[in-house]
Amino acid sequence: MLNWLLQDIAPAISKRWNAMNHKIYLTILFATAITFAQKPDFDFIKANKDAARLIYSKPDSALVIVKKMLSQKGSLHDTIYGNSYYLYGIFYTMKGVNDSAVYYQKKALSYFNNYPISKGKSLLKLSIAYRDKADYKMAIKCLNEGLDLAKKNKDNIGIAMAYGELASNYTYMLEFDTAIDYLLKSLAILKAEKNTKKMTPIKQKLGNTYYNKKNYKFAIDMYRECLAEFKQQGNMKNYYITAINYADAFTETKEYGNAKSMLIDAAKGMETIGDKALTGVCYAKIGKIEHRLGHYKQAVANYKKGLSYLIPSRANWVVSMATDYIEILNGQKDYTRAIEVIKSIDSLNIFSTVNLQDRMNYNHAAAEAYDGARDNKKAIAAYRRTIEIQDSISESEKSRAIEEVQAKFQTELQREKNVVLEANNKMLKREMEIEDSRKWLLIIARFSVLTVILLILRSYWLKTRLQKETIKTVEAEKSIIQQHHSHEQELTNAQREIIDEKQRELTSTALRMANYQDAVNEIIEKCNSGSLIKISEVKKELQQLVKQQDYWKQFETRFNTLHPDFGVTLTHKYNKLTKNDIEFCSLLKLNLSNKEIASLLQISHESAITKKYRIKKKMEINDDDEFEKLLMGI
Length: 634
Known about the structure:
Layout: H1 2-16, H2 22-37, H3 44-54, H4 59-70, H5 78-95, H6 98-109, H7 116-132, H8 136-152, H9 156-172, H10 176-193, H11 196-212, H12 216-233, H13 236-252, H14 256-273, H15 276-292, H16 296-313, H17 317-331, H18 335-346, H19 356-372, H20 376-390, H21 395-425, H22 430-529, H23 535-546, H24 551-562, H25 566-573, H26 579-589, H27 594-601, H28 605-618, H29 624-633
């Protein structure tokens, strides 16, 4: 409780006491917690810590502490009530009593409205209780509310744990890829936060998901790692759950000795904790292994023991475990015992919370049992329920299952018809027999026509769905092409800007070179005018110029960088042009006027025009526009 209380009230206190040192700050927080409790003679902080420490390993001992906290007289702070009911909810989750777990977590939430960290954790536990009830819709709703709360408060650990529980729900809903995405997000956050303790249950969930995807080797590696970590942490409930999953993976890889050993250990642990549902699951799974080993009596004994725990708990697992048991009894033609099991399961009225696959398997096994017992009416009803459930499962599995179940349904229907016809044969004449046969044939024909129509309609629906998916794919590809074109346009514009910048830089260099030559001319003019008479003065001026860069050479280097093929192309096309001609053409390509070129080359304006004319003549070009277009195109 202290940790949560500090998390929820610390921000408000730190605003007022930001300047205080760490020791004084903690003293105030402890004092505040005790004041809120209003019971200085009872240490609520220690009691809450002890209960939280024991709740996953010794839930009964934890409950004694929780009850003692709630029995204290006087008005207690909301966080004390909230944390106590939160632990109460976890206790019932540990015991597998999900309705009570939901009730107490809701009660805890009523006290946590002003404490977002605590509220988020309680929502997480509430979602687990709903998930164990197979109410995945409510579980996901609670998790999304907790996720929003964690994001709002920038609680990265809360976000990671919400992702992990969302993954568990999607695993139970058989959406394994979605589950893996959430688990990887959760692990990435916890790794960044360096919270290795909370990474363990996430790795366990990842192992479960890969087990369901039939990647047993990876699942075994994950379970082995999680078992050691849970044991070190003292989290025995999760340790035993992982042991059950570990055993399942060993069963699938036919390592029956390892599987049986893990299940016996888990059954004893779950019985110690008081979780009857999971204790029953352990014994039923042992029965499954014994059956695979050919030990029929041991298999039946373990299934019977497992159901004795599962049926009172009303846990959803009872349906799948009972299905396996009924199938074994059917295989031994022990239909009387199989029907007794069916009646005990039907009386629980829990099928609304059981997933479709388990419900279908159960009804199919029940139909086989009634069929073996010659109870045709119940057999047909069970086959009909199987078909209805199968209609809601995936298309790939549906076709095969429907054909098999319908065939058995038709067999049972025909058998019932034959029984009726035999009875009527004693009383009715030959004509009535023929009439009855025609009626049955008409019923069969109508049923066949109806089946064909349904198949055609389903085929049309699938075709329409495929066309829609194709259109979506084409639109997505079109969007990708448009984005690619946009990126190419941006790249072209960027390249053009770079070229323009280089062009401006080259022009600037050319003009600086012109200034350099102007400075030389200025020195000459000073000498001619008598401003510079002494040789030392002239030498000084020239030395100043020597220190400057060779601008023409710099111009030539940068021009060749910007237009590397200009000189080579021009020389190749017009071999009469000299090096000076090429340099003159380089200045023309920069769009410099004749006057600017004359200044740059220290020649007269008329000489520049003449030079340009001679170059055009060598190139056999008369028109100025054609000449400029040719230079710009290279």
